[in-house]
Design brief:
The chain is of the alpha/beta class. The protein contains 14 helices and 13 strands.
């Protein structure tokens, strides 16, 4: 039995009105349901709202010292946990420490490299990050990847399939996403998007599962939020002014590191949706990413990848009219996901790398 204390934001970006965070619903929920893991949650935002940041950090140390977990598993958003807190737990207790870095495609120069050395081990989803960390003299890093929580993402009863979902996308409207959907509509491909900024609006989790399971084609777009003129202007401003813990500060003296981060935001990355859609038995068609997808899925056999708008339209029309081929790809994608790409598998790999198995 591995005893894990999971310390992260309980609410999405620390805001209760936004609901539970991805960290809580995906990572902690999966950890607590693993048969040989005893997991407890420490909500850093909830505790900070109750007693303040300093007292929250002291409580985290006391919790570790009193409960003596084998692993403190963190998911840092920013500086909510103090550096000295992590260093103390890593060096002064028997508890091993770990952090999952989520945005290393751009955050290593301005964030991750300052925090990684404080932990026993950290992970990254960026395939190039190991070399970048090494250039800073940091070697306690392993490669992991997003996945699917099978307790949260699962197939729906096909007997309830309404049969009216052709091409769909679930996610906020930003960057090039609107252009993709509009192009499909102009080409008379029946496409519908759900989420903030779209006419259909946001959907709850159950409705999202149904969309993933029942849609003939589920789309994923690889461009980040920072893709577009407006977002690039905001990024330019961030070369000089940053925000940490709700306060703005001048960061122009880190100009070149900030510039590296700005360039990194333009990378097209593998996202969690790539694994969550197949976990629901859905057919996934995703845009090309700068990260290689082939270690995870075989394009054309387990998922489908499109290169540009024209390719997207052509492939949507093809797979809408080739039901058996589409269903076979969806089934293969589901099987691969359940075998290799659940967070159960990801966490087992982390435990082994840290000598907890």
């Amino acid at each position: 039995m591995i005893k894990v204390l999971f310390a992260a934001l309980k609410y999405d970006y620390g805001s209760p009105e936004k609901g539970l965070s991805v960290e809580h619903t995906n990572f902690y929920d999966c950890l607590r349901q693993m048969s040989d893991v005893q997991a407890e949650f420490f909500g850093v935002d909830e505790e900070t709202m109750a007693v303040g940041r300093d007292a929250m950090n002291q409580k985290l140390i006391r919790t570790v010292e009193e409960t003596k977990p084998d692993l403190l598993f963190c998911y840092l958003l920013t500086e909510e946990i103090k550096k000295e807190t992590i260093k103390y737990i890593t060096t002064k207790t028997k508890t091993k420490t770990f952090n999952w870095f989520a945005d290393d495609h751009w955050r290593i120069p301005v964030f991750s490299r300052y925090w990684a050395p404080l932990f026993t081990m950290v992970s990254t989803t960026d395939p190039l990050a190991l070399g970048v960390y090494k250039s800073y003299g940091i070697t306690n890093v392993i490669k992991s990847q997003w996945g699917a929580n099978p307790f949260l993402y699962f197939t729906q009863d096909q007997a309830k399939n309404p049969g009216n979902l052709d091409v769909t996308f679930v996610g906020k409207k930003y960057g090039k996403r609107g252009g993709y959907i509009e192009a499909l509509e102009r080409a008379n491909v029946p496409a519908k998007a759900f989420g903030g900024g779209w006419p259909a609006g946001r959907v709850d989790h159950q409705k999202m599962l149904e969309i993933f399971s029942y849609s003939k084609i589920n789309l994923n777009f690889s461009e980040t939020y920072f893709y577009g003129a407006k977002e690039k202007f905001k990024l330019f401003a961030k070369l000089f002014v940053g925000k940490e813990l709700g306060r703005y500060k001048f960061i122009g003296h880190h100009f070149f590191d900030n510039l590296k981060a700005m360039r990194g935001t333009q990378k097209k990355c593998i996202k969690g949706r790539v694994f969550e859609v197949p976990a629901c038995g859905g057919f996934l068609m995703t845009g090309e990413s700068d990260d290689d997808i082939t270690p995870y899925y075989t394009p054309g056999k387990e998922i489908v990848v499109f290169k540009n708008t024209g390719d997207l339209i052509e492939k949507c029309k093809y797979y809408l009219s080739h039901n058996e081929e589409r269903q076979a790809i969806a089934k293969a994608g589901y099987d691969r996901t359940m075998k290799e790409h659940t967070y159960l598998k990801r966490f087992e790999e982390i435990f082994k790398a840290m000598g907890l198995r």
